[in-house]
């Protein structure tokens, strides 16, 4: 009798645990299914609109064979969307089409639709906030809100449902006297074993505190959907997580080749076999980010050259977190002073690792703590040579951010990086612009990491084209571009805002040209006559327009004198200036304060200080006061706003003077950009030599302007 009572207690506990696990598993599938259905409805509407833009004549190209489209056009079915919306029977009624022809056209239209669906991605319009987008974001918000509680319980819940159900079926006999009397010996023994198994399952679950986890997960799943206002505010704050959720829900099918950097199959195979432990990571990675982290782990010493805004930092942190889970303890990040605070924040936000800032008054204490306890040490590239770390301290991975700063092997910073790369087994160089002017400088970076690859590069042979070059550097270099992997990025709209010198400005400009003063030539349009400046007048108009539309603005210039004039023009309420002399710890605080203001605000920043490392995606209007002398500097500045997490289209306005140096600068910039596009991006065979851009830009512009103005 006692045994049967005990069996009943075990059965009851097992049923309670099974029911709780079923509720979590079913509820999780339900809210994720709702999110997927909402996404597919939105994508289907997008697909229908897209197919209505494709002429029916495209069916002939898609079919690869002769098909009759003239009857369709005569019947008014002029788009592929119109054909796809009809059934075969309806198409067969079109005069001039046979049933077989109708069947063929319908099949081809469906093939085109399937191909288009694979290439289309839903992009939520933050400005319109229509009903369908609100429904989609509300469904995804439920998933994201519940995930912290559901994630730890999802696997155990699904496992328990299967294990408990099987054990309960076999053990149920032991709970009934009548059934035990009529059961055979074998069945009674099997029931007794099942009760023991059920008891172990319940005890193991209680020891691992699974009932509490399941209860928290069930409460999170049952929580009522948030209001549209709350959902849209959350989307604005962390849109990247929503787009990542689209992929996690099985709604996105990324371009595998592009997300893997178009690497050779032998390398991609090795990377795919590389595990990535997420025990010490607290964020979900996109597919291409996971690939990047595994590429670094599999290859050991690499350059991740992803375009700005694709998450090179989180890929590096993920590699550290994986190594920490495998027993490693010490990691080192080397970066410009301007992004040190950003690194410590990213480590804290995206992992369970502890970051130590080796800078300022706490440098010594933090260095001692890191040496003893481990974690992520963050040091500046210029102070690396003074970093005194005991030889017995094993640093498992070093990350060098903005690695193109050490491309010149003769500088002190480069020599220090070289010494550390020889000491550390795994190294990641990060740079969206690993080679700005010369391919031999890019080879220098590769030489720090994998000398054999660098020694095997035939720079003379690269003149024949970038394909062979990219194949040669594949073991060490991974590059993905925004358009390859971030299909949800909002539009980037560029506008050139031309103005002319007034009389006072032109006179000052001639004097600067005659003196050969390139810096003065570039600032004349702002400083010679601020009250009559065409550039300042246009800047004011752009800021007023942005204010009326509730958009945030960031204004970049290379010159502090220009920033002073801009602040004087716009008056109080602007944030900044953020310059090279702004303390490192204050830079992100300034950006945070600018971002926190509801609606319109303006940030004024020196382009080298604010255009690297900081995240300014709250801004959707970027004003560049003058063209920069390196093609990558503007790209970096724009990428501060046009990056993963941006929810609005980004407007980029370049202020240019028609009769000043700007036109000459733009012409030479285009030549420099061509080299980078050909060798660092995925493009067709290059036709220009690396030597074609080996130009002293300042001297070239001065000489051209002196000839033009006869001074």
From TrEMBL:
Asked if the Swiss-Prot or TrEMBL record annotates the protein with the keyword Transport, the reply is no
Which intervals hold domain Helicase ATP-binding? 293-452
Q: What is this protein called?
A: Superfamily II DNA or RNA helicase
> Which source organism?
Catenuloplanes indicus
| PROSITE patterns per record | HELICASE_ATP_BIND_1, HELICASE_CTER
Per UniProt, the keywords (alphabetical) are: ATP-binding, Helicase, Hydrolase, Nucleotide-binding
A single GO molecular function, which one? hydrolase activity
Q: Which residues form the Helicase C-terminal domain?
A: 538-693
**A Pfam short name:** SNF2-rel_dom
Name the domain of life this protein comes from. Bacteria
Q: Does NAD count among this protein's keywords?
A: no
């Amino acid at each position: 009798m006692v045994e049967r009572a005990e069996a009943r207690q075990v059965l009851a506990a097992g049923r309670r645990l099974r029911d709780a696990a079923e509720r979590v598993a079913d509820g999780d599938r339900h809210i994720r299914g709702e999110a997927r259905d909402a996404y597919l409805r939105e994508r289907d509407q997008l697909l229908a609109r897209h197919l209505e833009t494709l002429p029916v004549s495209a069916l002939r190209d898609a079919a690869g064979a002769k098909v009759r489209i003239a009857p369709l056009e005569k019947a008014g079915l002029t788009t592929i969307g119109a054909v796809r919306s009809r059934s075969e029977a309806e198409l067969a009624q079109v005069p001039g089409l046979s049933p077989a022809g109708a069947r063929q056209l319908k099949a081809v239209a469906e093939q085109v639709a399937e191909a288009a669906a694979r290439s289309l991605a839903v992009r939520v319009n933050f400005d319109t906030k229509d009903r369908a987008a609100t429904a989609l974001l509300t469904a995804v918000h439920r998933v994201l809100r519940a995930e912290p509680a559901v994630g730890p319980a999802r696997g155990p819940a699904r496992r328990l449902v299967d294990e408990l159900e099987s054990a309960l079926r076999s053990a149920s006999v032991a709970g009934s006297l009548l059934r035990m009397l009529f059961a055979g010996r074998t069945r009674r023994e099997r029931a007794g074993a099942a009760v023991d198994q059920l008891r172990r399952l319940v005890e193991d679950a209680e020891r691992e505190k699974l009932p509490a986890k399941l209860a928290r997960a069930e409460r999170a799943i049952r929580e009522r959907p948030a209001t549209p206002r709350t959902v849209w505010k959350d989307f604005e704050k962390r849109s990247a997580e929503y787009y990542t959720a689209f992929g996690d829900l099985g709604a996105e099918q990324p371009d595998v080749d592009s997300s893997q950097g178009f690497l050779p199959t032998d390398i991609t195979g090795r990377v795919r076999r590389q595990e990535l432990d997420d025990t010490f990571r607290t964020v979900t990675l996109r597919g291409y980010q996971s690939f990047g982290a595994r590429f670094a782990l599999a290859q050991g010493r690499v350059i991740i050259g992803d375009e700005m805004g694709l998450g090179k930092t989180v890929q590096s942190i993920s590699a550290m977190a994986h190594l920490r889970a495998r027993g490693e303890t010490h990691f080192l990040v080397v970066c410009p002073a301007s992004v040190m605070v950003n690194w410590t924040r990213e480590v804290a936000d995206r992992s369970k690792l502890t970051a130590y800032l080796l800078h300022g008054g706490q440098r010594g204490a933090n260095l001692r703590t890191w040496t003893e306890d481990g974690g992520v040490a963050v040091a500046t590239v210029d102070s690396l040579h003074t970093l005194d770390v005991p030889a017995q301290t094993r640093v498992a991975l070093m990350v060098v951010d903005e690695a193109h700063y050490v491309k010149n092997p003769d500088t002190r910073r480069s020599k220090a990086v070289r010494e550390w790369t020889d000491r550390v087994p795994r190294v990641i160089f990060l740079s969206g612009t690993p080679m700005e002017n010369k391919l031999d400088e890019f080879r220098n970076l590769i030489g720090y990491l994998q000398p054999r690859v660098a020694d095997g590069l035939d720079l003379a042979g690269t003149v024949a084209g970038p394909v062979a070059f990219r194949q040669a550097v594949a073991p060490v270099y991974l590059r993905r571009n925004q358009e390859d992997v971030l299909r949800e990025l909002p539009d980037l709209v560029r506008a050139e805002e031309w103005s002319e010198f007034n009389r006072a400005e032109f006179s000052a400009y001639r004097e600067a040209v005659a003196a050969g003063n390139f810096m003065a030539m570039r600032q004349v349009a702002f400083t010679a006559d601020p009250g009559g400046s065409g550039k300042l007048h246009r800047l004011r108009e752009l800021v007023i327009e942005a204010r009326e539309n509730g958009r945030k603005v960031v204004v970049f210039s290379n010159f502090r004198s220009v920033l002073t004039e801009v602040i004087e023009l716009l008056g109080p309420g602007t944030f900044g200036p953020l310059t090279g002399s702004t303390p490192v710890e204050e830079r992100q605080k300034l950006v945070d304060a600018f971002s926190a203001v509801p609606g319109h605000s303006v940030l004024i920043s020196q382009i080298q200080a604010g255009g690297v490392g900081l995240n300014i995606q709250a801004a959707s209007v970027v004003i560049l006061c003058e063209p920069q002398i390196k093609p990558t500097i503007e790209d970096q500045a724009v990428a501060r706003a046009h990056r993963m997490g941006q929810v609005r289209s980004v407007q980029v306005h370049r202020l240019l003077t028609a009769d000043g140096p700007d036109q000459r600068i733009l012409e030479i910039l285009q030549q420099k950009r061509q080299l980078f596009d050909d060798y660092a991006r995925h493009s067709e065979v290059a036709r220009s030599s690396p030597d074609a851009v080996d130009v002293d830009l300042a001297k070239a512009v001065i000489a051209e302007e002196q000839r033009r103005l006869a001074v």
